[in-house]
Design the sequence.
């Protein structure tokens, strides 16, 4: 088994798929292919961009429960405080606007010193601000930065900044009073560039707040304090302290902390001795408490059961596939992609099943997993009776999506499709650009194609491409290589 660096861990894609190719979501078994949600945190990355950790946990308590409490708190106020006329039945019924809800929250917050209510109000303001345009998002249709701002855009930006300023001010007051939820939430804002100078991550302010909240026993804060100490984000790099915080979070059954301790024990990282048996125990505990944000232990345990560890873990393909399915149900793209391969080629004891293969590839592709996107290209090239109609256009679109994410074999495929007019209008010049990108990425076929001079317009002077041979080569490469090789977390 190959080892990966101890500080390199799988993490959810930070963004969901944008408007992209469509897919037939009806399987031959009558099952609807689920469009799984993207497992991103409230504010995106929980660590610097180059960090290798699962994304942030969002704010404490869970968004669903907190929204329920939030609404319960509003409607439970006396009628004199809240005008509920908008709730009357009939054609005139209407929902509260965001501005009206903010006004009601603000009125409630002014009439109480309840820290929980003030905290809820602050969270709501941050949520509202996040839904507005930010200066970093001012881009035109071609991806360039817009130099001129419309009055409406300027007004939105100003309103967003005002909300963030008001929310962080209230959070600071609560944090100074020792309210752990506010300490953690404010730290999370700073760590993700909210309420900071130019929207930059500020761990110098975030780390001390994580540590303060951790001292109050806040599980998420303990985990985040551990990541700060491990990597030196806003503090000195101290592995021993990181382990202390991880263990404190693990006692509270934090899946991310248990996963990190498991990988550390397996690899002998963070100053710990290499103890595979203890590492597997931590991974199993993390898997038992896996969430959409922390499904990683399920995936790693599946890989370990696929290979086995002498005197520690036995090979069990059936259980490995079950673990992958659990992770895929939580929306974890690498697990979904691996299951797609298993059902396409009959690996790990899975039957060959086109419907399930496409189903799992789709889960991963919708989260911008580039190899899954290219796998759908292969499926669309041939189609599957009763499951997926053959479509050159869809094959081209999925290949282009994978190519734009830097997959060399997909870049070659787009070059080929563009050169021969499969799924798109033929354009030899554009094809050569894609071949150049693919060659730079190490694709040997692209290098040969460039050396041969391409089709040169209508084929004069160039080497003609045989569609049948090219298609077979693409499918064979997909079958032999699949996606990126799975990395086992221990030797």
Sequence:
């Amino acid at each position: 088994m190959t080892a990966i660096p101890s500080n390199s861990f799988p993490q959810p894609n930070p963004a969901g798929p944008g408007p992209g190719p469509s897919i037939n979501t009806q399987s031959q078994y009558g099952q609807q292919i689920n469009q799984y949600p993207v497992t991103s945190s409230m504010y995106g990355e929980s660590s610097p961009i180059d960090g290798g950790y699962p994304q942030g946990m969002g704010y404490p308590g869970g968004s669903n429960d907190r929204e329920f409490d939030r609404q319960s708190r509003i409607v439970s106020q006396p009628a004199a405080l809240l005008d509920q006329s908008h709730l009357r039945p009939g054609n005139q019924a209407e929902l509260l606007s965001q501005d009206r809800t903010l006004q009601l929250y603000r009125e409630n917050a002014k009439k109480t010193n309840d820290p929980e209510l003030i905290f809820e109000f602050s969270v709501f303001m941050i949520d509202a601000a996040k839904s507005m345009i930010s200066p970093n998002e001012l881009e035109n249709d071609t991806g360039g930065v817009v130099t001129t701002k419309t009055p409406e855009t300027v007004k939105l930006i100003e309103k967003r900044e005002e909300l963030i300023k008001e929310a962080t001010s209230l959070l600071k007051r609560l944090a100074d009073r020792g309210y752990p939820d506010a300490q953690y939430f404010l730290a999370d804002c700073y760590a993700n560039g909210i309420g900071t100078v130019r929207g930059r991550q500020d761990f110098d302010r975030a780390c001390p707040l994580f540590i303060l909240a951790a001292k109050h026993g806040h599980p998420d804060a303990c985990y985040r304090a551990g990541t700060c100490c491990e990597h030196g984000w806003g503090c000195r790099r101290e592995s021993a302290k990181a382990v202390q915080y991880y263990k404190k979070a693990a006692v509270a059954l934090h899946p991310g902390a248990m996963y990190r301790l498991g990988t550390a024990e397996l690899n002998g990282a963070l100053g710990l001795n290499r103890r595979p048996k203890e590492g597997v125990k931590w991974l199993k505990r993390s898997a038992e408490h896996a969430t959409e944000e922390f499904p990683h232990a399920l995936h790693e345990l599946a890989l370990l059961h696929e290979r086995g560890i002498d005197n520690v873990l036995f090979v069990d393909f059936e259980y490995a596939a079950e673990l992958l399915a659990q992770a895929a149900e939580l929306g974890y793209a690498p697990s979904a992609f691996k299951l797609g391969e298993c059902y396409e080629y009959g690996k790990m004891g899975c039957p060959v099943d086109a419907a399930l293969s496409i189903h799992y590839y789709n889960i991963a592709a919708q989260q911008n997993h580039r190899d899954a996107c290219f796998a759908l290209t292969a499926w669309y090239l041939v189609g599957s009776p009763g499951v997926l109609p053959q479509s050159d256009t869809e094959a081209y679109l999925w290949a282009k999506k994978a190519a734009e994410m830097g997959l060399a074999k997909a870049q070659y495929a787009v070059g080929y499709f563009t050169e021969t007019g499969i799924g798109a209008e033929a354009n030899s010049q554009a094809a050569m650009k894609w071949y150049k990108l693919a060659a730079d990425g190490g694709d040997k076929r692209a290098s040969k194609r460039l050396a041969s001079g391409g089709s040169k317009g209508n084929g004069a002077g160039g080497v003609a491409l045989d569609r049948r041979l090219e298609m077979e080569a693409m499918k064979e490469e997909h079958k032999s290589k699949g996606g990126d090789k799975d990395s086992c977390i221990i030797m």
Q: What stands out?
A: DSSP finds 21 helices and no strands in the chain. The CA atoms of residues 454 and 460 lie 10 Å apart.
